[in-house]
């Protein structure tokens, strides 16, 4: 569904991503792990056209998207649930949801978003800024789904949430996968990530240092790239 080939990305002169190659398979949950500052968000932002690819290719269903603007990438079927959720604080829940709505026959509608997230229905007239962190995360996921994407990118959706809310977010991701959605998940929460993942990549200092099934991640790899501070 989505392939990245030898992606190199920079902020000014800082070379952040080094020949990153990875594949996000249709209908699967692909997880990108790595400690703080290793380039996970930069990878997601490169896919979305928010950080330019200096070299390399990003291919969505045979279409090269590495030179496209974010709105074009979005129209082609990629949606982002950004780190920190980024809900509009001064719009109501309903208005937040409707800003991105792109109707597709048989796709997501406001009604089935409310069916999946009853709490959003209850709070539909509340301002985005008045919601709890967990509610904002639901809103951010609902808003992305209303673009009716083929691929959903989630950047650390568990960040700052209570353990109970982390379980809820994991359950939502599981349901979306069951419905056939293709998911690319950046996470720091190893337990949640490994529970959901069909395939795992690890980034270290902007390079992919591991790619494999979750059960191939042994203690050595975890200790080297995930658990201990560098
Ligand atoms: N706008 C920016 N300008 C310059 N450098 C940046 C910018 N954004 C990120 N960086 C640097 O790029 C590197 C990768 O950052 P990135 O946010 O992709 O990491 P990450 O793995 O997502 O970490 P985190 O979990 O903290 O979000 C870091 O060294 C960071 O300091």
Automatic annotation (TrEMBL):
Domain ABC transporter: 2-230
GO MF entries: ATP binding
InterPro entries: AAA+_ATPase, ABC_transporter-like_ATP-bd, ABC_transporter-like_CS, BCAA_Transport_ATP-bd_LivF, P-loop_NTPase
Key words of the record: Amino-acid transport, ATP-binding, Nucleotide-binding, Transport
Tagged with keyword Disulfide bond: no
Entries under Gene3D superfamilies matching the protein: P-loop containing nucleotide triphosphate hydrolases
Record bears the keyword Transport: yes
Entry similarity comment: Belongs to the ABC transporter superfamily.
Name by which UniProt lists this protein: ABC transporter ATP-binding protein
Source lineage: Bacteria, Bacillati, Bacillota, Bacilli, Bacillales
